[in-house]
Recover the amino acids of this structure.
């Protein structure tokens, strides 16, 4: 039975060389393929090796390269974590006191007045007395609001309306642009 020399790659891509006995060249190739190898070169004993066979290392490379790569990856992760932990803290401005007074008159069958500051969000209701109202707001806020809605309602319980700066004014609700430095606002023409 003839002897064959071979160069193959295993399932991890490592090259191996060796020799084997087989009835013919095709039989040797089938045996190598059944072993899960990719045949790089297969020649009968006594024939010269090809260049690709000469370049095949006899031993698999050491695991040092893999360990070095994992160590560098871990070191990079630690450096990234350390820089993230030393990032400057975001400074948040301390809350500022906010005092606003809303007062005025309302006419019609209205019984309550509702104040909404949608930017905070803040909602307050008060009962009308002789058609007059006065609402005082004292809060600590990060950002001062730029507008407010004042609305009169009937006897039913009021609820916060989804009002914003683009909402429509009605006779029963008005939007007030809040000016820096001003604390008192008057709305006298609300009708229910």
């Amino acid at each position: 039975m003839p002897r064959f020399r071979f160069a193959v790659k295993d399932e991890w891509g490592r090259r191996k060389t060796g020799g084997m006995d087989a009835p013919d060249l095709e039989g040797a190739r089938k045996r190598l393929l059944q072993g899960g190898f990719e045949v790089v070169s297969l020649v009968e004993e006594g024939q010269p090796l090809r260049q690709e066979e000469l370049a095949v290392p006899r031993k698999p490379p050491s695991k040092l390269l893999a360990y070095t790569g994992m160590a560098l990856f871990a070191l990079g992760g630690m450096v990234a974590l350390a820089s993230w932990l030393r990032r400057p803290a975001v400074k948040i401005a301390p809350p500022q006191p906010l005092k606003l007074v809303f007062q005025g008159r309302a006419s019609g069958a209205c019984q309550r007045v509702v104040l909404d500051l949608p930017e905070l969000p803040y909602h307050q209701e008060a009962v009308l007395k002789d058609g007059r109202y006065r609402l005082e707001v004292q809060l600590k806020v990060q950002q001062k609001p730029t507008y407010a809605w004042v609305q009169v309602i009937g006897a039913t319980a009021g609820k916060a309306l989804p009002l914003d700066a683009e909402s429509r004014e009605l006779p029963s609700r008005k939007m007030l642009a809040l000016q820096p430095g001003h604390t008192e606002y008057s709305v006298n023409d609300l009708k229910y």
